[in-house]
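Progress note, project year one: complex with biotin.
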Amino acid sequence: ENDLNTSFIGRNIYYFNTISSTNIKAKEIALKELEGTVVIAEDQTTGKGRLGRDWVSSKGRGIWMSIILKPEADPIKVAKITLIGAAAVNKALEDIGIKSQIKWPNDVVINGKKICGILTEMNCELNMINYVVMGIGINVNLQEEDFPKNLIDKATSLKIAEKREINRKKLLANILNRFEEFYIPFKNSDDISKAIEICRENSALINKEVSIIKGEEIKTGKALDINEEGKLVVMFENGIVENIFSGEVSVRGV
Ligand code: BTN
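Model obtained:
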């Protein structure tokens, strides 16, 4: 609370001990609540990841939250919003002395292992956004035994990576502060240059081989950059360079 210095992000908080999913709850209340309202829970019984996956949300050890946003932007621009969340988490971690990398467009990793995932959902009508719910899950103080065996090689927690207990309240306040800092220019003038710069400077993908998975199709190439629109610039094996829009793909480092 004391560390929070935002004007509207996180000024209205719904706090739950146990809930199905903070994204589900946020979507239920989004229409009647103010922009910047945050739903947060100690424990989620059916935490949701991208592509219909489950999300492990061990009780009291993570930050499981959803932020309600109401930008007056073209729905097509919303894919970029996720980069604001990723940049906010990366910077907030840096503020407490933890180096991380952003795996475009929605993961934050440490040493190649995922510590944060973001699930952005939108509700729109015609060409108007009613609301956006950005769900952010951070593995803060989870221990090895909290992870299912199939995730051990892919995911980790801040505690495991840093070998120390992390103060969740302080980290949460830092994330909300950073989020607002990067969100205001987007809201006011469609400017996400700061978030993109952070995603570029701390990218886990640039100059690496990547697989772009689009439906049934898998294409391998090299990630070159994140452009000013927030798209991933990839050179494929045939030499063709494409700008990849986050809405349509899943990226795997290879
Ligand atoms: C992913 O990496 O697949 C996205 C994971 C998103 C998890 C967070 S935890 C808080 C919010 N509530 C959910 O059910 N999911 C998101």
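The domain at 209-253 is CATH 2.30.30.100 (SH3 type barrels.).
Residues 168-189 form the longest helix (22 residues).
No further modelling is planned for this target in the current period.
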